[in-house]
Batch of 2 targets.
Target 1
Amino acid sequence: MSPPGRRGGESFGREREGSAVSANRPVVFVVDDDAAFLAGATRLLRASGYAVAPFASATEFLAQRAPCAAGCVVVDLDMPGMDGLELQAALAGSDVPLPVVFLTGRGDVPASVRAMRSGAEDFLTKTAPKEALIAAIERALKRETRERNDRARWQALQARFERLTSREREVLTHVLRGRLNKQIAADLGIDERSVKRHRTSLMSKIEVASVAELARLAAEVDAQPPKGR
């Protein structure tokens, strides 16, 4: 990727008309305090077909970012105020984290190791080929879609279990322990017919047809929720 300040910056292409960010498509958020590079990177990515939102600082991005916005972040490593690593940490702690691709004007092995260990999608220099940046962005966007879908599925599954009454939760606990209806009735001090009724109701609310499927979903919802729940 040619630095914007050189003649080679022509390869960034022209901004497309109608390139405004749409609410229903992923956005590549570019964060860099170098105005020339920020403008060049924005032109390049828009010419490559992406919706792009440029920001001159990490604090500006965090202040203006829509909480539910989908996409990824392409961020400079060294910036005044909040740097790229600090922005990565802030995103990781948010309700809807976004994958991060780092760009830096110089190689920095310790920083790259720290960034990758913290979940960065890639760590590139600003002189890297355009193709390397596009490939990293594509991976980041696919990852964000997968993680967003995982969060949505977990939330929907959790909502099913939240439909249960307190008695149905008690019956569920005993069912998952492998107890028979008559054993559950004795444990809870209710008649077996009531156990069957609660059991049928909870299976319907959780939308399962077998105890095996019930156990699998119960284990899934009790597990650590997907990052950014």
Target 2
Amino acid sequence: MKAYTKEAGAFDTARCRILENGPLRATLRVRSRYGASALETDWVLYAGARTIEVRVNLDWRAHLKILKFCFR
């Protein structure tokens, strides 16, 4: 069994933008790149919420590479 523990690289943060900042909800969009691949993450916080919603859109273009994705 292969573990795939070696890190080959990481996404760089390219742009951050506030999409909405209202009384009910605020959303921050972070766009990152890794080579030809693109990652778009929306961080959504609802008023009074104790959790945060994360929406991820990934365009993975790396040939013969496996993506192991985690939040830190």
